[in-house]
Amino acid sequence: ALNIGFQLSITVGILIANVLNYFFNKIDGGWGWRLSLGGAMVPALIITVGSLILPDTPNSMIERGQTEEAKAKLKRIRGVDDVDEEFRDLVAASDASKLVEHPWGNLLQRKYRPHLTMAILIPFFQQLTGINVIMFYAPVLFNTIGFEDDASLMSAVITGAVNVGATLVSIYGVDKWGRRFLFLEGGVQMLICQAIVAACIGARFGTNGDPGDLPKWYAVVVVLFICIYVAGFAWSWGPLGWLVPSEIFPLEIRSAAQSINVSVNMLFTFAVAQVFLTMLCHLKFGLFLFFAFFVLIMSIFVYFFLPETKGIPIEEMNRVWRTHWYWSRFVEDLDYPNGGMEMSKGGQGPKNV
């Protein structure tokens, strides 16, 4: 659950930006957009200044051979003097990481085929849910379906608030209900909502894009189902798209696999953002059906190919792959004679799994 704090921070940032945009839009003279655009400088400045005063971590000190300084830093962080066991774990982890050679080459080995597949497809599917269409262009989208400027910005605030609230639900339930359940439930929820929104917009707009007088109740229904869709994403593919990859990559390939995971995510975030407006003009309500199709595909993929990772240590994941109906053909017992280097209790060094 703690891992989802990363996604929670993203959703809170999106909500704050939406709220600021709503109030900046009320500034007379039409120059509020300059504050919205220039406001991005504030968190960038905080990050820049923070990086200058950010202290070294004990782990980074150990990597550079500053063991005594690292132990003193660890004592200061924990607030206790008895940190010997944790310190030995850190030292042993550092020693184990130095034994790893050619992580990119390792990732291409047959026994890591399931890991490579997940590193590519999970972030790919995460972006093809269409969530960034809502998050990036919510005011444009709501304006297109008949909302006034203030109403469209307020709708973006509402969806942002739903995003934060549903992420908190994921933090509560991810270790209670499991990853697969949230993936599948969120997928079904998003699929139904996208189909309903497409039907509502299609029935009102048709293909000419003219809704006439849009009844208030009609607009409320559209916003309601978009919010339900956002909630489905925020407690499933949103946080789990980052959480699950971090739980399945062993030490030998972790750096390479995580790099691919993040790169694919950013690549398709950029691609979807670039083509959205063109797709909206050409597909109109069909845009939601386009993303609904991928939600269906990704839900089928999770059902058949993604094993449950709840409560399973990374060093035990190779056993999960070996017993999976499909991935077992790539991962065999002979693949791990010395594999899965992880920490043993008390920092006694890497252990075999």
TrEMBL record:
Residue ranges that the Swiss-Prot or TrEMBL entry lists as coiled coil: none
A GO term from the CC aspect = membrane
Tell where it localizes.
Membrane
- Give residue ranges for domain Major facilitator superfamily (MFS) profile: 1-310
* Pfam (any one): Sugar_tr
| Record carries keyword Transport | yes
Transmembrane ranges, per UniProt, are 7-25, 31-54, 116-140, 152-174, 181-205, 217-238, 259-279, 285-306
Source domain of life is Eukaryota
The cross-references to SUPFAM superfamilies, in alphabetical order and at most eight, read:
MFS general substrate transporter (SSF103473)
Q: Identify the main location.
A: membrane
UniProt cross-references to CDD domains, sorted A to Z: MFS_STP
Q: What is this protein called?
A: Major facilitator superfamily (MFS) profile domain-containing protein
Recorded hits in InterPro entries, A to Z, give:
MFS_dom, MFS_STP/MST-like_plant, MFS_sugar_transport-like, MFS_trans_sf, STP/PLT_plant, Sugar/inositol_transpt, Sugar_transporter_CS
Question: How does the protein's chain sit in the membrane according to the entry?
Answer: Multi-pass membrane protein
Family as reported in the entry's similarity comment: Belongs to the major facilitator superfamily. Sugar transporter (TC 2.A.1.1) family.
Q: Which Gene3D superfamilies match?
A: MFS general substrate transporter like domains
- List the lineage, top down: Eukaryota, Viridiplantae, Streptophyta, Embryophyta, Tracheophyta
Q: Which UniProt keywords apply?
A: Membrane, Sugar transport, Symport, Transmembrane, Transmembrane helix, Transport
Q: Name one GO molecular function term.
A: monosaccharide transmembrane transporter activity
